[in-house]
Amino acid sequence: MLLRLACIAVTHAFTALRLIPMNDHDKDVEILALRHQLAVLQRRLGNQRPGLQAADRAFLAARLHE
């Protein structure tokens, strides 16, 4: 569980570093692409909600306290 949490944290850190040199247009395009991916996933899942594991809940709780 801790290994997964560490992996998620490192992945998000690299994602944040990738966004630093982007200008506003690039960020807007990235946001639109992510919204499209989210819409596709929601259509596939329908009314089902993905189950959160303990590591997922810990990560989300940590993000809320920032």
Features:
single chain, 66 residues, 77% helix, flat
Quick rundown:
With 66 residues, the chain is mainly α. The protein contains three helices and no strands. The relative contact order is 0.13.
Beta fraction: under 5%
Radius of gyration: 15 Å
Q: How many strands, what sense, and barrel or not for the largest sheet?
A: none
Distance from N terminus to C terminus (CA atoms, Å) equals 21 Å
Separate helix tally = 3
* Total discrete domains: 1
Contiguous low-pLDDT stretches (5 residues minimum) are none
Shape: flat
What is the count of β-strands? 0
Mean pLDDT: 82
What structural class is derived from the secondary structure elements? Answer: mainly alpha
Helix content percent band: over 70%
Instruction: Sketch the topology as an H/E string, one letter per element.
Output: HHH
